[in-house]
């Protein structure tokens, strides 16, 4: 166990956070999607510590966070289309998978030794300030133990990783609430993970439909592609129109519940509330001595796609 410092996102907090990163320590920090568990992407030991703290299988490559497109271009090879997308959507919840530059200097653990790399510029003032203070690439998966619900508040991070990481920068709740959309541009645009940037927006920008799948050439299987992931303790029943006996109900739109993702039926608001609602439903179930959660149907449009992806994984049979 180590003492996890909670840092305010001011000049002195950012200084300590950057110093921890330089020393190979781990710092959790807010992004617009979820809290990330950051380590120096060039430092093998720091990256190994990320996997260790999360209890994450080592074959999964991590997303590398940079402060701007210029830094990303030092790490990966950008086609004109990749540059257009980066200029349009960065900073923001879009991760691009691109060919890795041999001289990028990243730890091979970050990319799982693949010839490609996943990059993004987060749209959060604290994340950007940390990237500037550290002045280097930060590898950061979501700051939760592997397989559990992603954190959208500092308290969630402490709950899952307190005592295992050097520090956390507390930047309040995350606005988007689901992880970034991962788009591979290795051979034709393909969405590898639905997320905070809607498929529709990417298609509008490209003027073409994009494939949706996952990279099966790669050894890595996204944790989001494992059967059970983002899992609450209670069992989940999806597309429920009402609670059955012994269930905590999570509502959406006209379908009410103990908790609602969005009373007005707004998928953006629902995404922002998703992970905190799963946690709150778990707590309610515990209080009531029951072990099931029912969730109302969510329309499969815009961020609804990312919500349904996370919900179906959370509902998947547990290993
Ligand atoms: O919103 C987010 O993206 C959050 C916040 C903290 O930024 N980060 C996040 O990172 O979710 P992470 O490391 O958990 O995402 C890793 C996933 C892998 O499981 C894989 O799906 C994809 O990114 N990935 C990374 N490198 C890849 C590569 N070279 N080829 C294909 N997929 C890759
Ligand atoms: Mg994650």
Task: Give an overview of the whole structure.
It is a single chain. The chain is an alpha/beta fold and 319 residues long. 31% of the residues lie in helices and 17% in strands. About 2% of the residues have low confidence. Helix 1 packs across helix 5. The protein is built from 9 helices and 15 strands. It has 2 domains: 208 residues, DHBP synthase; 81 residues, no CATH class. An 11-stranded mixed sheet has the order 1-8-2-3-7-4-6-5-9-10-11, with helices on both faces. The structure holds threonylcarbamoyladenylate and magnesium ion (MG). The site of magnesium ion has 4 residues, from loops.
Précis, in short:
The protein is of the alpha/beta class and 319 residues long.
Write out key terms for the chains shown.
eleven-stranded mixed β-sheet; 319 residues; four-stranded parallel β-sheet; alpha/beta; binds magnesium ion; binds threonylcarbamoyladenylate; 2 domains; 15 strands; DHBP synthase; 31% helix
* Overall pLDDT: 93
CATH architecture label name of the largest domain: Alpha-Beta Complex
Structure summary, number of beta strands: 15
What's the CATH topology name of the largest domain?
DHBP synthase
Fraction of residues in helix: 25-40%
**Main sheet attributes: strand count, strand direction, barrel closure:** 11 strands, mixed
Task: Give the SSE layout.
Elements: E1 5-7, H1 11-22, E2 27-29, E3 36-40, H2 44-54, E4 63-65, H3 69-75, H4 80-89, E5 94-99, E6 116-120, H5 125-134, E7 138-139, H6 154-161, E8 167-169, E9 181-184, E10 190-193, H7 199-206, E11 211-212, E12 235-237, E13 247-251, E14 259-260, H8 267-288, E15 292-295, H9 304-315
Parallel strand pairs: 1-8, 2-8, 4-6, 5-9, 10-11, 12-15, 13-14, 13-15
Antiparallel strand pairs: 2-3, 3-7, 4-7, 5-6, 9-10
Helix pairs in contact: 1-5
The protein binds threonylcarbamoyladenylate and magnesium ion.
